[in-house]
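Lab meeting, action items carried over

1. Structure of the two-component assembly. Owner: GW. Status: complete.
Input record:
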Amino acid sequence: MKIKHTITDNTITISLDGELDASSSVLLDEELSNPSIMMFGKILVDCKNLNYISSAGLGVFISHLQRFEDAQIKLIFFNMQEKVRNVFEILGLDLLMTIVSSYEEAVTIAND
Amino acid sequence: MTNRIRVSCDRKNLKLIRAFVTDTLTPVHLSEITLNQIILAVDEICANLIIHSNQEDSRKNLCLTIHHGKQEIVIELEDNGTPFVQANYKEPNIHDNIRAGKKGGVGVALVNRIMDKVEYSVQGSTNICRMYKYLA
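Predicted assembly:
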């Protein structure tokens, strides 16, 4: 799993590349647990190259969601592959998290 | 057709396990989503066996066997760790997990929703998890 981030103004875009499982999800948890992330108003997660997610990967997002909501930080996923989106859907997480098709759509929602 | 692999209880082996499931089931011509779901179900059970049942003790092993025919895919996982007690399992409430900031606890729920039947048994010192996916 490779994690890159890009910062523009009040937005951090996190790009995930690889597979998020019980082994690799530790890296993502460290990234989202970093106190500096709370300085941003918007966290966009680019899932274009995220090829796989297990419950451990979902669990990382689940565990941070309330903290981000409490701080009024928007968490938006985009470019998600169908098979990865399906895993969110199995648990109904697609209804509790914001998942959109494209970067442009993510930016529009983030600026609403 | 039956394929079998034995791996040590190290979470780094989950990637190897997923590659084995992919290679074994490629001839079945499942949709990308169904194949990914079955890979996920195997990954979830293996992660639980490695982390919880065997405490990531790499001297211990687990055995994965996949049988596939025209009608069904049967997946068996065997290990010698602490058995999973299905009677003690409680389906998670995702809203509660979000409120509590809980990381774990949704893997078995995924498995139960993906597979058509999941059975747990113990034979001597061996725990067996058998999962079925019907194709017809």
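2. GW to write a short summary for the group page. Key points so far: Helices of chain A lie at 25-33, 55-70, 82-90, 103-111. Chain A touches chain B at residues 19, 21-23, 29, 52, 54-56, 58-60, 62-67, 82-83, 86-87, 90-93, 96 (CB under 8 Å).
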